[in-house]
Amino acid sequence: MEKLSRRTTLKWMGLGAALLAVSRGQAQQTPTADQLVKGKDAKLIVLSQRPIVLETPYDLLASQPERTSKEILYVRNNVDLPGYNSVEGASLEGWTLEVGGLVNKPFTLEAKELLSLPQHEVTMVLQCSGNGRSFFQPRTSGNPWKRGGVGNVTFRGVRLKDLLESKGVKLGEKALFITAHASRQGNAAEFVRSVPIHALEEALLALFMNGEPLPAVHGGPVRLVFPGYFGVNNVKWVAKIEFTEAENTTAEQMPRYRVPAIPNANIPILPQEPGKTYPYSFTNSRPNWLVAINSFIFAPQEGQTVEGPYVRVEGVAFNDGLVPLTSVEVSTNGGRTWFRATLEGSGRSFGWVRWRATLYLRPGEHEVIARAWDAVGRSQPLDGNIAWNERGYEYNGVMRVRFTVA
Fold it and tell me: What are the TM regions of this chain, as residue ranges (predicted)?
């Protein structure tokens, strides 16, 4: 009886430990997006809790083809500013902005003064440079984005060049870069990014997004926005802007957010052998600045069954806005032949452009692919893996969707 009693006791002890482990596991479950950021849709995919990284599920993204709402817009924070994890607007009261560096008249202003200056509006694609990272093989480092690290939003605020003019500020001849610093209040980590000086032409101190005060989690009350540039360059919670002769040397400028490149050549990216590392430097790589040309298929969606034989295929396309998109093509035979879709707009656009095509398809399983072209001949590769890089930046391979025609 004594042995049996001990065995029984051990069993009960083991069961208790297991129940305790389950209980702790439940208590430590990943919080949902709306628990991490007040006002976000709970369906957003949590890629990281700190810093907060949220991906928009693709069906949600496709459900808003005109403009991406603040509730479903992705979040990619390199820094979490304490108290700013909300889609509600942040107060301008007490926020200051310092402007200096290679200028004749450095100044500091109260951010609320920006409301009295002429306001400008721009619709643009906001996209993480790691968007699509999961499609690179072998797997790269970083958050495993699929296609939901992107959105189409409208910012409104004051052009940086208008602010400089209102203050009588002139740039020095050696001012070749705009270097922006995020606020470090609440002991937030340092975050600094530099972009080339020609970005000044479109640079915007954004105060509003989609007609509402700029959401705190998206950089409110003031975000420095560069239309046509990847999201990381659009510095949230901007507190200081410097005009500098060189790029800054913090980790977010080097070695992060760069791809291998051949200096002084027309080849924009140097192929990197998949799975290998690269010795990044300022001379053998380039930053993730301008958005790569891309297109998405919003309908049909993967695995969907649609009525035939006439099937409507539609989606969006975008580039860096420097030149117009000229066409979007779709193919149902792996790229052997292409059918030209109808673009909704013409001319330069920093926002995405909708496209659609109607295909005659027999009943059965099909795969459709889409690629965009622009006025300088840029397009998407059939094999996006040719641009493999160890951090998985700037993926723009053609999108492939498999579906069934009833």
Answer: none
State the Cα–Cα distance between residues 313 and 332, nearest whole angstrom: 11
Whole-number CA gyration radius for the chain: 24
Q: Is 18 exposed, middle or buried (0-12, 13-18, 19+ CB in 10 A)?
A: exposed
Let me know: does 183 contact 237? Beta carbons within 8 Å. yes
Report CA-CA distances (Å) from 350 to 63, 123, 153, 205, 243: 20, 6, 10, 16, 24
Is the Cβ–Cβ distance between 402 and 297 less than 8 Å?
no
For residue range 51-89, list pLDDT tens digits in order.
Answer: 999 999 999 999 999 999 999 999 999 999 999 999 999
Tell me the C-alpha to C-alpha distance, in Å, between residue 301 and each of 73, 297, 306. Answer: 20, 7, 10
The strand ranges marked E within 145-237 are: 150-159, 177-182, 192-196, 204-209, 212-213, 223-225
Q: Which of 171, 222, 221 is nearest to 199 (CA)?
A: 171
Average pLDDT over residues 85-98: 97
Residue 377 CB-half CA count within 13 A: 0
The residue with tokens 């790269």 is 140
Mode of pairing for the β-strands spanning 305-306 and 399-405: parallel
| CA separation for the pair 264, 252 (Å, rounded) | 23
CA distance 95 to 61: 33
Q: Is 102 within 8 Å of 164 (Cβ atoms)?
A: no
* Sequence-distant contacts of 37-42: CB under 8 A, at least 24 apart: 37/75, 37/85, 37/86, 37/87, 37/217, 38/85, 38/86, 38/87, 38/88, 39/70, 39/71, 39/86, 39/87, 39/88, 39/215, 40/71, 40/72, 40/75, 40/87, 40/217, 41/71, 41/72
Q: pTM here?
A: 0.91
